[in-house]
Fold this protein.
Amino acid sequence: MSEASTASKEIPVGGMTNQELKDIIHTLRQLEANWNHKFHYPYTFINDEPFTDEFKETIRRHTVSDCYFEIIPPEIWNKPSNIDPDIEREKISKLTEKGVLYIDKDSYHNMCRFNSGYFYHLERLKQFKYYWRFEPATDYYCAVDYDLFKFMEDNNKTYGFTISLYDNPLTVETLWPVTLDFLKENPQYVHPNGAFRWLTENVQHPDYTKTTGGYSTCHFWSNFEIGDMDFYRGEAYTKWMEALEEAGGFYYERWGDAPVHSVGLGLFEDRSKIHWFRDIGYHHSPYKNIPNSDKCNAPEDSGYFSPEDVYDQNCLSNWIRLEMTNKELQTY
């Protein structure tokens, strides 16, 4: 993630390892060239292990912005004590047989849980309101000539995204039932203008909603996201996260931070405060959001999805159709 100066309320943040230095430099160069050379927001780099001197020195050679290197405390990174190892072993074995990616990697589960419910409590980030998450080996193809953080604040936006996808329903099989149980006990947290139709759409993948007990698996791809951390710090999201932690799905399944953020936003926030950054050219293999604009310089064709992906993976069309207001539609 990256961050802004301590005099402001915003910060870019990236989670990565020492081994990803080459890939983060690839991304950092594009962020600097296409946006941050105008604004000089500082960056915060996050790791569960100490960064090497080589990593820090190389990063600093590629930006004039301040850089901070933070270590995640083990108490918010490591597997919590309420996870039953026998239950975990049994469930992971079954999902491994079904070919679920990363299901046997503890570090992946730790990362998903940390990004879902803990990154915004890091000491470095407590002073900040907005964050921009970036990841190694991603591409930013378009020049952005305005301050994205100021846009979020001036337009009262809580969250911004570029790509929306369906998830593997096996990874979130009980996320929705656990959430519904929470809402039965806490109906006051549901926002009356939430993105309910997007969360429960069952036309493209009725088999997904059947597996998950009603959740479409639509989510904002969180490897790019700009958000208001005060939303996550709020009572509704905090209480819900406590229920998710108790259920253990970050380890018994593979609940990702993308569906967790998305379900939380869709239920507890006004959908009009969620913004599709159509003008940000972004690529994270294999998907992309690249406007047909003279501000963009991409090696591949502009577009949002290749034709073969539209049916199987793309949930952006549902967001546009079901949740965007007429005013928002008229701006595109």
Observations:
- The chain is about 40% helix and 15% strand.
- The first strand starts at residue 10 and ends at 15.
